[in-house]
From TrEMBL:
GO terms for biological process: nucleobase-containing compound metabolic process. InterPro entries: 3'-5'_exonuclease_dom, Exo_C, HRDC-like_sf, HRDC_dom, HRDC_dom_sf, RNase_D-like, RNaseH-like_sf, RNaseH_sf. It holds the Pfam family DNA_pol_A_exoN. Residues 25-191 form the 3'-5' exonuclease domain. Residues 1-23 are annotated as: Disordered. Gene3D superfamilies: HRDC domain, Ribonuclease H-like superfamily/Ribonuclease H. CDD domains: RNaseD_exo. One of its GO terms (molecular function) is nucleic acid binding. This is Putative ribonuclease D.
Amino acid sequence: MTDQLVPADLPVPGIPLDHPADGLPEVVESERRLDEAPTAVAGGTGPVSIDAERASGFRYGQRAYLVQIRREGAGTWLIDPIAVPDLSPLDRAIGTGEWILHAATQDLACLAEVGLRPRQLFDTELAARLLGLPRVGLAAVVEHYLGLVLAKEHSAADWSKRPLPTAWLRYAALDVEVLGEIRNLMGVDLARSGKSEWARQEFEALLDWAPTARQDPWRRTSGLHRVKGQRGVAMVRELWFERDRIAAERDIAPGRIIADALLIEIAQHALGANPPGSLPAGNRAIARYQRSWLTALDRARALRDADLPPVNLPSEGPPPPRAWADKNPLAADRLARTRLALTAFAEEHSVPVENVCSPEPLRRVVWTPPPGAPATDAFDAGLAAYGVRPWQREIVAPMLHSAFTA
């Protein structure tokens, strides 16, 4: 582990970070007050630290319920996007200025919903991974670089609550207060370890990031494998959509309407030797929405056999690696050789192996070699087709060439 760097002259670890340096700002809850924020932010200097708080597990969807912004010379702004949902004036004020976020993919979508989109950014969590820090959560990164203890007990709170408690607002303000200093120290470490270009490409790729729309999201219902046959799978699907409809209508997280395990129980009950109009007894969530569950089951029963969903979706990619030795021993050997080289590189440079190359594009290129393989340029093009960044291809393509010519 040669590349992990620790800045010199750090404070003594363990000092609590309890209060914002400039005091706790008032929450922006009106258009009049919001009008002041762009002027202040435009008048500041340097990068802009940004964070958002959601109500995951409490509300339907991933909208932002608080947005925090801080810039040198502009102070910290706490904005209620429910009261003032259009933050595009702030977006124009920031312009091409650099955003600093921690775990950008958690917040980019909900920030875009309120009109905030970065033109350049620095992700402190991703930088921590590239630098080989043992823990990459914000609190751990703050303690590593600044020797300060940042409380995180409100990270999973219901941020849709109004009014927001003072302790929560203090926590939210502190989240962005330290990002600028951490970004500067990380920038030094990235340069000293020769990873600045790696980080630049990773951050640039995030500018076009968007959540992946899942095919058949209902197939992620926990316990689906316990339901037998296409008719049973159809029942789970209809129950899932019914739950999702209720959750969206009531703005409640689907799991708070009814748990996955109970959807499975309802489907199994319907498949058993029970009257068509009956449901499992003894659970309030089942009883409360019983008409909805029975309607969903009726829809599944009414489907023609030809319209039933398959029990399993056909795989579009290579088989699981555990099956390669039987199906394609040569590909299995090549994958093992490449993984061995990748692991050695990752350990030498103190970076998680999945950050050097994600498993899926690697498996696809090994299982179905690109035209021109085993030439290094062919593997470079093959990896590029799956979104692998240039710095990663420069490392991995020669490894693939070696594995295929061994």
